[in-house]
Amino acid sequence: MDTKRLIIVAVGGQGNLLASRVLGEAALLANVPVRMSEIHGMAQRGGVVESAIVFGDAESTIISDGEADVLVGFEPSETLRALNKCNGKTVVITNLAPAPPFTVAIGKGVYPDLNQAQELIQAKTSKLIAFDATARAKEAGNVLSLNMALVGALTQTGILPVSEGNVKEIIRTKTKHAFVDTNIKAFELGFSAAVDA
Question: Considering the entire predicted model, what is its pTM?
């Protein structure tokens, strides 16, 4: 089986780790070998959270610069920051709703222009799927389901060896019962957004 390498970047509180777990469990449900690692950084203070997930036969979870098959960004500037993991064949999926760091709020930093960021990503990779996953999550009934909207978009691409059915099964059985309906709806809205992109 071909090895597929996925990088997920987010800021603390956006649900990166749950998204990683859902994808990893869906792979296991399909009998696909999977390895995962996480870097939490200053996650509890709104800092970056990065997950590396390798599907298929691999010795390591390390994804070096230029090795990612897919990059999923829960926050646009974090997607841009992780662009070094991509190559000309990488597919990038990003949320377009910014969550500016506190340095921007206090005037010590400048948030990147979203149009320029998208142009940079498109110039370096094979495909960009960019949509407002936060709006899709709100439409589903819970802004915290933005992670499932992005998982839906990722699943729709067919790049990873996980099926829509397996991912939904894991959402139903492994996420908090109170959020299952909104998570499934957000997944479906994200799936549709990727079709339209």
Answer: 0.94
